[in-house]
Amino acid sequence: MHTMVGQPPPAASTSDLNRCHRTMATARQFSTNEAWNDYCNWLIANGAFIHEALVFPPYNSEPDSGARCITTWAVPAGTRFVSVPHALILDVSKASAAFPSVTVCNDISSKSFDGRTSTPTLTPRAALCFFICQQKLLGERSFWAPYLRILPREFDTPLYKFDDDDMRFLDGCNMDANVVEGKRAAWKAEWEQGVEILTAAGEDVEGCCWELFRWAATLLTSRCFPEVLMYENVVQAPQLQRNLNEPQFEMEGDQNAPDSGMRATGDRYMNPALVPLLDSLNHRPRERITWRVGKDELGFETVDGLQLGVEVYNNYGAKSNEELLAGYGFALADNPSDSLILAFPPRLSGPQMRIRERQPQPSIRNIYHLTLGGGYPRELTTLFHILTASPSDRPLLEADPAADSISLRNSMATEFQLLMALKHKLRKFTVEPGEPRNDRQRAANIYRDGQMAILRAAVKRSEDEIARLLAKHDGKEIFTIETAMRDALFAAATDAAFEAGTVSELFESEQEDVVLAFFLCWKFLTGDDKWKRWFEYIAQFHPFPEETGEDIHDLFDRLHPDAAERAPQVFGGDRWTPELLGWAWELYTEEGANVALWDTNGRSLYAISIEVPE
User: Fold this and answer.
1) What Rg, from alpha-carbon coordinates, does the chain have?
2) Where does residue 384 rank: exposed (0-12), middle (13-18), buried (19+ CB within 10 A)?
3) 3-state SS of 543-566?
4) What are phi and psi of 381, to 5 degrees?
5) Number of helices and strands in the chain (H, E)
């Protein structure tokens, strides 16, 4: 896995292919790079299969150059082109056997693979990392020496190599410097604990320094496969790799976000494994590969066939640039699978939680993915239906928790709150990092640009949807202070009573909320049948009070007498009471919703929906 940043490597030349694929009368020549040639022959000698059309020319003339897999003639569709026996796979069972005095189990509270319950224990991931370190320290004495020899000496992933200058390109992203440093610290703690456990158990860990462990851990994030692939009668799909080799990064403060690059799963079959040969193929999105799982081997079969002189790819699954950068150290400028992770652990009451349990859930708790061309995940919008529900929304929500729309008011409130969350996230991208100066920065910049593009697209979609709903329903079912002030009689009365005749003046004098409450009182006293129907409906959830609080009395006494004197045609009459104003204020605060930002100071346009469910 040696893909260059942002794009696949250039096509191999004819001379490359000719040098690599010489006559096979006596022996097979796989590569002009000696280490790679020895590696491929080691694979074949130990039961692996490499189609005769395949060679591995190096990227350059450097001794430690990586190589790519190239065809020297066309390979028909449906042909197996590589396979590797289980004996060559570095998996947790081999790591466990290498450290017999230590228990290896997925969960320290559970039994190990062989039923032992003794402590201390190592997680499967940690055990495999230490096993890789052990084999590396053995050098040429290791059975896997030819494989270890061709592996990268370092990686361009944030956890492995990014310095402070590189980290500037991650500012604002989920995977920022604080998160990366936190992950590094967690890896180091895992190493320190493992050294202590193995030493106490009498295992030899001399030479297993932090730098070597970090190298082994990065190997797993960049190359591992799930162990489930070694078992027959399992339905295979590229997304199986998602669970192991893509360390994802949560938004700040969330402890429930996935961290597959560092945790062992509770399922033994999802443990990590290094699969020589198969892990040498670079990634290309949507490449069609069939996984062939045999009793003793694992292999790939081409679905569409391979043309002459092309690179042979694997498909790592639908991976975002965050996953690619975190796990492999590269990003794709036009990644069709790019997404942005929103980690949102809500605080729900008991009744809200019971509704939530009846709604669609994300595959990983509290984790939602936004894409450039898609809308909000349904699992996220239904959650916000709960969070933004008013008293009149709740019976509708309880009746159909998974509905795409609960009410007009709820739809607008949901859209606005999602919009605010995304704008808050977008504001974190405050500092322009400048022009990238190395491959790490170029990859990080691709990732960063993609995250901002997804956020901006989602913000635009929400703004457009709110504008559409307002345009369709304003003055019919939706009323804001702008709607109220378009009524000439009410606007004139407001100007006389509150000395503010425009919406701007109301906002400047911070009277927009109380004037909209006065508007509700006026509509209750003089409104048409549509308003009367809504007031009758809403009284089920907000009964008219027999008395009201002292604060409302004070507000009424402070505002209403002057308003009634200055604009009696609207605010006059003995039906104007503190109880009416208190009721209107309750409807305003509990049934209204923010629907748009009014200015750059964060003040919002508030709306009342008088929609009545059928």
Assistant:
1) 32
2) buried
3) CCCCCCCHHHHHHHHHHHHHHHHH
4) -65, -35
5) 22, 17
Q: Mind listing the pLDDT tens digit for each residue in 148-192?
A: 999 999 999 999 999 999 999 999 999 999 999 999 999 999 999
Whether 340-469 and 1-89+276-318 are alike in CATH topology: the answer is no
Burial of 471 by CB count in 10 Å (0-12 exposed, 13-18 middle, 19+ buried)? Answer: exposed
The predicted-structure confidence for 200-232, as pLDDT tens digits, reads as follows: 999 999 999 999 999 999 999 999 888 877 765
Q: Across residues 400-413, what is the average pLDDT?
A: 96
Q: How many Å apart are CA 359 and CA 297, to the nearest integer?
A: 42
Nearest to 265 by CA among 320, 227, 322: 227
d(CA 565, CA 271): 78
pLDDT above 60 for 21: no
Return the bridge partners of 67, or none. 58
Q: Identify the residue with better confidence: 456 or 2.
A: 456
What's phi and psi for 370, nearest 5 deg? -100, 140
Looking at domain 1-89+276-318, its CATH class is alpha beta
Locate 241 and state its tokens: 């790799």
- Best CATH choice for the domain 340-469 from the list 2.60.40.10, 3.90.1420.10, 3.40.50.2300, 3.30.420.40: 3.90.1420.10
CA distance readout (Å), 486 to 475, 479, 482, 490, 563: 9, 10, 6, 8, 19
- Integer Cα distance of 37 and 29 in angstroms: 7
d(CA 108, CA 106): 7
- Give which of 318, 369, 379, 377 is closest to 343, Cα–Cα: 369
Within 10 A of 64 (CB to CB), how many other CB atoms are there?
13
Ranges of each domain in the chain:
1-89+276-318, 98-143+150-274, 340-469, 478-609
Would you call 80 helix, strand, or coil by DSSP? Answer: strand
Phi and psi at 464, nearest 5°, equal -65, -40
Neighbouring residues of 500: CB distance < 8 A, sequence distance ≥ 6:
494, 506, 508, 509, 511, 515
pLDDT mean across residues, the chain: 87
Looking only at the bridges linking them, the beta strands covering 604-609 and 478-480 are antiparallel
At 264 the pLDDT is 31
Distance, C-alpha 228 to centroid of its chain? 24
Query: Which of helix, strand or coil describes residue 84?
Result: strand
Which spans in 224-277 are helix H? none
State the DSSP H helix or E strand holding residue 19, giving kind and residue range, or none if neither. helix 14-20
DSSP state of 296: S
DSSP calls for 519-550:
HHHHHHHH--HHHHHHHHHHTTTSPPPSS--H
Nearest CA among 602, 597, 588 for reference residue 524:
588
Give the separation between CA 439 and CA 413, rounded to whole angstroms.
43
- CA torsion 221→224→227→230, rounded to 10°? 170
Helix, strand, coil abundance in the chain, percent, nearest 5:
45, 10, 45
How many Å apart are CA 86 and CA 141, to the nearest integer?
Answer: 20
| Dihedral, 106, 280, 66, 446 alpha carbons, nearest 10 | -70
Give the residue among 519, 597, 587 at the shortest CA–CA distance from 548: 587
- In this structure, the number of other CB atoms found within 10 A of the CB of residue 70 comes to 24
CA distance 198 to 473: 68
